[in-house]
Amino acid sequence: MKRAFITGIEGQDGSYLAELLLAKNYEVHGIFRHSTNGGAVNLRHLKADPQIFERTLFLHPAELDDVDSIRVPLEQCAPDEIYHLASQSHVGASFEKVEETCRITGLGALRLLELTRKLPKAPRFFHASSSEIFGSPEQSPQDETTPVNPITPYGCAKAFGTQMTRIYRKNFGLFAVNGILFNHESPRRGENFVTRKICRAVAAIKAGRRQELVLGDTSAQRDWGHARDYVRGMWLALQHDTPEDFVFATGKLHRVQDIVELAFQAAGLEWQKFVRQEKQFFRPADPRQVIGNAAKAKNLLDWQPEISFEQTIAEMMAAELHAVLNL
């Protein structure tokens, strides 16, 4: 039985990855922040299963800026694979929490790489990078050779972690991989992300608990996929014969406006009656044409997205409508 160690296991990607690995007969260890007390809703179903929790799934309290709190469970676990997913991951919030973002997202990756290097048997290491490392790229679509040129604090912190992963691979011989993840969503997405914000608000409007949805620039475009597809890519990247970096993306652009229309359509409402734009929600230095080329992942890992954008938004809306109408 292989062992895996996941940082950020409580989050969207971490919880889906835990499910994937458990289904593949892994023993899974994950760290959670002390402040949540291990009570994240994304793991509730796994913790409630006596055949899984404390048998093949183990959770440990730790903080990314406290090396000792990570070292102890990591050494006890002695994993075959490490998936570093934890970070301060909201781009907009990174402008308000610049130092915290760099400390947690950037230096957190370095701390974990150094801990990995010092383990008696070095595991394979996956670092969750981001399309934000490209900033506003001149070439489109972006792939593994696109120059790193971040324009947000979050992108800068991720770029640091990405480059350090490459350095540890080249100079210390670690099997260290960057998965350059473009935007990916699901019903487990954080409530402060625009996809979840829209779906949650539309469900509340449907239930008569809100009167309108206030947004910023709905013409902004992104390459949006589904988190379940992307965590499958993470696992495939660590099964590859050699450590390499991979872009995971759909190669298709959609507007925020497309999410709005699909969400209201799923709720049986006309979006024009409920949506209002406010300049205060426009994000500074917002990259517009960020679209990924995942040809390398397709060719070497036989990976490609299986869940469409439309299916993703429909799934998110179904979950929000179920939650609000069954309260």
Task: Give me a quick take on this structure.
With 327 residues, the protein is an alpha/beta fold. It has helices at 12-23, 44-47, 67-77, 91-96, 98-117, 153-172, 194-206, 227-239, 256-267, 295-301, 309-325; strands at 3-7, 27-32, 57-61, 81-84, 124-130, 176-181, 184-185, 213-215, 221-222, 225-226, 246-248, 254-255, 275-277. Helix 7 crosses helix 11 (309-325) and helix 9 (256-267) crosses helix 11 (309-325).
How would you characterize the overall build of this protein?
It is a single chain. The chain has helices at residues 12-23, 44-47, 67-77, 91-96, 98-117, 153-172, 194-206, 227-239, 256-267, 295-301, 309-325; strands at residues 3-7, 27-32, 57-61, 81-84, 124-130, 176-181, 184-185, 213-215, 221-222, 225-226, 246-248, 254-255, 275-277. Helices cover 41% and strands 15% of the residues. It has 2 domains: 3-185 and 225-248, NAD(P)-binding Rossmann-like Domain (Rossmann fold); 194-222 and 253-325, UDP-galactose 4-epimerase, domain 1, CATH 3.90.25.10. It is of the alpha/beta class. The longest helix is centred in the first third of the chain and has 20 residues, at 98-117.
